[in-house]
Design brief:
heterodimer; A: 264 residues; mainly alpha; MetI-like fold; flat; B: 308 residues; alpha/beta; Rossmann fold; globular; binds adenosine-5'-triphosphate; binds magnesium ion; ATP-binding (chain B); nucleotide-binding (chain B)
Chain lengths: 264, 308
């Protein structure tokens, strides 16, 4: 009885917290008479969303497409790079410093360079999203490959398994939980990349909308944009969290697999 | 990061002429032979794990290797299977010099290392997806192989668990499955490295019985590394005793107790005497090793003092 109650509570918790925060926000704004151009209330933001719905949705769609394109590219490159690094010591030694160096560069700083090559607009947003998201995928896949037990490797090699056999039968399945875990992080980073690029160099997308709204002091609209970005981030995260649980359920050893975290 | 990178030693053609490709070794020549084998990790100046080890194992024999911890027993297994090339001497299996990983050996370690994403039956059948000729026959003759795997699971009492995942099973059950996996492709050579080390006494004794039964039926050559002297005496025809590192063979005992042996056999005076003899041999080499280490330490200390 208490167990099922707890489960219910766990499911409801994210909603309760979110709604609670919104209510507190609304109360604070109304009670202290905070001006909408400093901090609009949730209801004002919602009004702005309804008012500018069409243009927000068009821009949001644009951001979504850029993000998903960059993310797809990131999956392909990250997966290949991860396999490459994880299965050869030489490649690992050679690429490691380069990758660390690359990852230390703030990607915002690369947007001007990309503009030079790709111009202003969607291609730059896609590539920025890609640049931000491929790294965690590659690192996680490589780490996953490295967790193969040496004993299992010995068993298979003494059966005559080739490197490819080892990779397909053991390495990749073993790396899958790491891969899917990294996707949740990567999709969020892809959003960040796309929006950053749009704020700097684009005539479309939520990022551009925010810059426009900011220059016109339409603060509720800005917050509506932020809310939409947050919502898209949460939805994509949940999608990949669900996929992760479906595909790599064995990695959580079947404990409470069906219960945990309904709200993401 | 180096997961799959261990380079297989040069794959000379002789490596492929493993135990079951050559018709049969001429009578009298041992199936597994080690001649003056030495192994140093990290180059010739590195840590010496094995020194001048000689073994000659006839086909179909059950061999046990015992010795103090760290004496190079696991290294010996790697040498015989070709996973690690010797730095001195030579290893040959079935009349052919070992130059790279043998291709058809069955192996099982203390850690069951089953694949958690595969149900038991498919775990047991993993070697069939790798070893020739099963690899190319598997798809067309699925039913035959399934029946074989099920029969094997039945001999170890796991027939009801074939659809379960490894993490749903107890350690002992996983180890049984591990044993099945090492036997599914009918290897001529089975290498076991402390396979029952992590199990409780009852399960362990039960699995001794299972292993003996399978072995008596199939008569593959088996090399068992173990810490448990009773286990060695129960299972083996011949027990090799190794010295402390760098390891070498210091004694060899033939166990001529009749088979099948049972747990009762382990209480017979002959059995108990044998275990006692081996235990005192190992105790002696351990003491000698300790003394040598102490002497070495004091020596190093005095030279250091002189230097400063
Ligand atoms: N890959 C390796 N690199 C360097 N040294 C190693 C390596 N593997 C083993 N050694 C060393 O070689 C020696 C023998 O190791 P090995 O694993 O063969 O011992 P063992 O007899 O199996 O020990 P145990 O009974 O504890 O399992 C040890 O001193 C160990 O430190
Ligand atoms: Mg060992």
């Amino acid at each position: 009885m208490t167990a099922s109650k707890r489960r219910w509570l766990e499911r409801l918790a994210p909603w309760i917290v979110t709604i609670g925060l919104l209510v507190i926000w609304q109360v604070v704004v109304v009670a202290f008479r905070i001006e909408p151009f400093i901090m609009p209330s949730p209801s004002a933001i919602f009004d702005a969303f309804v008012q500018y719905r069409d243009s927000i949705l068009i821009h949001a769609w644009q951001t979504m497409v850029s993000t998903l394109l960059g993310f797809s590219l990131g999956i392909v490159v990250g997966l290949l790079l991860g396999i490459f690094i994880g299965s050869s010591r030489l490649v690992y030694a050679g690429l490691y410093p380069v990758l660390i160096g690359f990852n230390s560069v703030p990607k915002v700083a690369m947007v001007p360079v990309l503009v030079l090559w790709l111009g202003i607009g969607q291609p730059t947003a896609v590539v920025t999203a890609f640049l931000l998201c491929f790294f965690p995928i590659a690192v996680n896949v490589a780490t996953g490959l490295a967790t193969v037990e040496p004993e299992l490797e010995d068993v298979l090699r003494s059966l005559g398994a080739s490197k490819t056999d080892l990779l397909i039968k053991v390495g990749l399945p073993r790396a899958m939980p790491y891969f899917f875990a990294s996707l949740k992080v990567a999709i969020t980073l892809a959003f960040v990349g796309a929006v950053i690029s749009e704020t700097l160099a684009s005539n479309d997308g939520i990022g551009y909308l925010m810059i426009q709204a900011s220059s016109q002091f339409r603060v509720p609209l800005m917050f509506a944009g932020l809310a939409v970005i947050a919502a898209m981030g949460v939805v994509t995260y949940v999608v990949f969290a669900v996929i992760e649980r479906r595909v790599t359920g064995w990695a959580v050893r079947g404990q409470n697999m069906s219960i945990s975290g309904g709200g993401g | 990061m180096l997961a799959l990178a261990t380079p297989p030693a040069a794959m000379a053609p002789s490596a492929s002429s493993g135990p079951d490709t050559a018709p049969s070794s001429p009578p009298g020549t041992p199936f597994v032979q080690l001649d003056g084998v030495g192994l140093s990790y990290g180059g010739p100046q590195g840590l010496k794990a094995l020194n001048n080890t000689n073994m000659a194992i006839e086909k179909g024999r059950f061999i046990a290797v015992v010795g103090p911890s760290g004496c190079g027993k696991s290294s010996l297994m790697k040498l015989v299977t070709g996973l690690q090339p010797p730095t001195q001497g030579s290893v040959s299996v079935n009349g052919a010099k070992v130059n790279g990983p043998l291709k058809i050996v069955g192996m099982a370690f203390q850690n069951p290392s089953l694949l958690p994403w595969r149900p038991l039956l498919s775990n047991v059948m993993l070697p069939l997806e790798i070893v020739q000729p099963h690899r190319s026959r598997l798809r067309a003759n699925k039913a035959e192989y399934l029946a074989k795997a099920r029969a094997l699971l039945e001999t170890v009492g796991l027939q009801e668990f074939e659809t379960k995942f490894p993490w749903m099973l107890s350690g002992g059950m996983q180890q049984r499955a591990n044993l099945c996996r090492s036997l599914i492709h009918d290897p001529d050579l089975l290498m076991l490295d402390e396979p029952f080390g992590a199990l409780d006494a009852f399960t362990r004794e039960e699995l001794w019985g299972v292993l003996q039964e399978v072995w008596m039926e199939r008569r593959f050559t088996c090399i068992l590394v173990t810490h448990d002297l009773r286990e060695a005496a129960y299972l083996a025809d011949t027990i090799y005793v190794m010295s402390a590192r760098p390891g070498t063979i210091i004694a060899r005992h033939e166990v001529d107790l009749p088979r099948p042996r049972t747990v009762d056999t382990t209480f017979e005076p002959r059995f108990v005497d044998l275990v006692h003899t081996i235990r005192s041999e190992i105790a002696q080499v351990r003491n000698e090793a300790k003394k040598a280490a102490k002497a070495g330490a004091t020596k190093a200390g005095t030279t250091e003092q002189k230097a400063s």
